[in-house]
Amino acid sequence: MQRIAVLGGGAWGTALAVHLARLGRDVTLWARDGALRSGRALHAAACVVSAIPSHGTRDVIRRARGLLPPEATVVSATKGLEVETLLRVSEVIEDELGSDRPIAVLSGPSFAAELARGAPTAVAVAGNCEATVAAVQREFRSGYFRLYATQDLVGVEIGGAMKNVIAIAAGAVESLGLGDNCPSALITRGLAEISRLASALGGQRETLAGLSGLGDLVLTCTGQLSRNRSVGIELGKGRPLEEILGKMRAVAEGVRTTEAALALGGRHGVELPITAQMADVLAGQKTPRVAVEELMLRRQRSEVEVE
Ligand SMILES: NC(=O)C1=CN([C@@H]2O[C@H](COP(=O)(O)OP(=O)(O)OC[C@H]3O[C@@H](n4cnc5c(N)ncnc54)[C@H](O)[C@@H]3O)[C@@H](O)[C@H]2O)C=CC1
Ligand SMILES: O=C(CO)COP(=O)(O)O
């Protein structure tokens, strides 16, 4: 897997391209408005890493379809859901490229800037076949980048997408200055909510206790570099969402994921109380303070749910 094309010239695509180039791979980075049409970016690629925001993935993959070498593995590094279809990103890719295509997903606690400077980082890698997962694990690893293999695509992708929703909530709670108990409860109950949805969709709860669940949740809810957390901080100050997003150049996937996750929960009969409150907050229908009060006043229940 020597030749690698990275689609997406944002922070994450760039960091992954830098990392792979450092490993001696022959890397091409395709940024929006780049030369995808000419096929130069994808020519003879053994592997294509997709680090496009979730809302742009289908379009870019569709445009890449005819240019992709038939055997090329596609590795999704995106964390989100397709709002219109409620599909996970690997499902979107499969929808466009067919179920024979080797597809893997990378997800876990990994701020782009830290990977780019070679800070020790560990992620999960899942895929639609064991050999694909093993190949990605082998080809992407370095002294500072470690990949844990799993076959649980659902768990890994739901963990990566949903942690962004809880991170927005964590930022809002931080802004309200409610102390340390509240964010801790939010992270824990957020994890319960994420695990419930993943499990209903066929994922394994154990996956959510791993890097693409708890690991990424802790990083994004507490890390200074998180864009999702920073959206929450601004919401907590009372700024409207449009104004916050209008000033942001980077993507905060949790904003769109909130709506999609809530719809997925509804479809599968899964209660997502924090996500539901965040949907109201993001829609400007409720303040974060009221959302916290309503969560606290919910009917008390068992901590561990019996399925
Ligand atoms: N930044 C990070 O630390 C990490 C980000 N991710 C995920 O990677 C994905 C990409 O995020 P970043 O690179 O951070 O985003 P970014 O905000 O740094 O850049 C987004 C890039 O996507 C391009 N883009 C936007 N809309 C597009 C569209 N419709 N079609 C094609 N390209 C489009 C933009 O031009 C820009 O180059 C997201 O799903 C994010 O959650 C995952 C792990 C770490
Ligand atoms: O996914 C990330 C770290 O694992 C990046 O989080 P943000 O998109 O909130 O910056």
From TrEMBL:
Coiled coil: none
Organism the protein comes from: Geodia barretti (Barrett's horny sponge)
The keyword Protein biosynthesis belongs to this UniProt entry's keyword annotation: no
Protein name: glycerol-3-phosphate dehydrogenase (NAD(+))
EC supergroup of this enzyme: oxidoreductase
Reactions that this protein is recorded to catalyse: sn-glycerol 3-phosphate + NAD(+) = dihydroxyacetone phosphate + NADH + H(+)
Residues that, per the record, bind NAD(+): G8, G9, G10, A11, W12, G13, A112, R227
Biological process, per Gene Ontology: carbohydrate metabolic process; glycerol-3-phosphate catabolic process
Domain Glycerol-3-phosphate dehydrogenase NAD-dependent C-terminal: 152-292
EC number: 1.1.1.8
Pfam family, one: NAD_Gly3P_dh_C
Annotated binding of substrate, by residue: K79, R227, N228
Claim: Oxidoreductase is one of the keywords in the record: yes
InterPro entries in alphabetical order: 6-PGluconate_DH-like_C_sf, 6PGD_dom2, G3P_DH_NAD-dep, G3P_DH_NAD-dep_C, G3P_DH_NAD-dep_N, NAD(P)-bd_dom_sf
Cellular component GO terms, alphabetical: cytosol
Listed NCBIfam families: PRK00094.1-2 (NF000940), PRK00094.1-4 (NF000942)
SUPFAM superfamilies given in the database record: 6-phosphogluconate dehydrogenase C-terminal domain-like, NAD(P)-binding Rossmann-fold domains
Active site positions: K163
Family statement: Belongs to the NAD-dependent glycerol-3-phosphate dehydrogenase family.
Keywords, sorted A to Z: NAD, Oxidoreductase
Occurrences of domain Glycerol-3-phosphate dehydrogenase NAD-dependent N-terminal (ranges): 4-34, 40-131
GO molecular function, one term: NAD binding
HAMAP family reported for this sequence: NAD_Glyc3P_dehydrog
PROSITE patterns with a match to the protein in the record: NAD_G3PDH (PS00957)
